[in-house]
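pasting for ref
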Amino acid sequence: MINLFEYKADNIKSVQEKEKITFDIDATTKTNIRINWNNVTLKEVIVNIHGQEEVKVIEVGEPNGIKVTYNLSDDAKLYLCLASFYEGKEAKYAIFLQNNSFFKGAFADFSYGSKNFIFDCTLKGQGAYATWNLASLSTKEDEKSFTISFYHYAPHTYAKMENYGVCEDKSKMYFLGTSSIERGAKSSSTHQSAKIMVFDPTCKAKASPTLCIDENDVEASHAAVVGQINEDHIFYLMSRGLEEEEAKKLITLGYLNPILNFFEEETVLEEIKQSIEKRM
């Protein structure tokens, strides 16, 4: 793996200008990158990916106040995994996809405190493909807002987002999703779903999906669910010998654990598991 400031691979070049650093990746071979945001004081990070081989990036920590941009050239492939465990106030991501480029993103958010996370994905080239998966847990007095947006500007583009959250105690969680198909983006497809499971009456949760369609001959759908934990599930588990808190914990794990399928690094997987346990 390649640390943000300890990269040695020949296919990665970088230029740093004061508070901004730009990476250029020549993806003629499969490339793995690890970015650790702890103690990073940059204002902007730009990653340009060229070539047709897979680039896998795992980010750990909180890019507080850092604008992060990924630019994918024609036929580029990016697998991006974000893991958040500590308090982070604000993060802003932008992804730009060109012709036939491929993006797959996942965010495991088990941080605490307030968070404002903004993620914009722009499908500029024909045949661009993007998916996004988020799992988040808010407890105590956390207040988290996630704004996820996909913009289709070219024909035959595809995007899908799935956001899952669990809200406990007096915490707040908001999922704001926008899928936009602009004029000219014929035969494109965009889909989104958002689900928040609420444990306590003192929680506040909102899932607000939006579709903006300005073209015919497209596919678009959205779904949003905010609801309390299923009492029948709790009753069933308790009838099998579990205490109520154990039953709730098991249901939460079942709801959030699928995000683990997107992560490969064992140390990060273990930290995600421990973080879920700790936050509950």
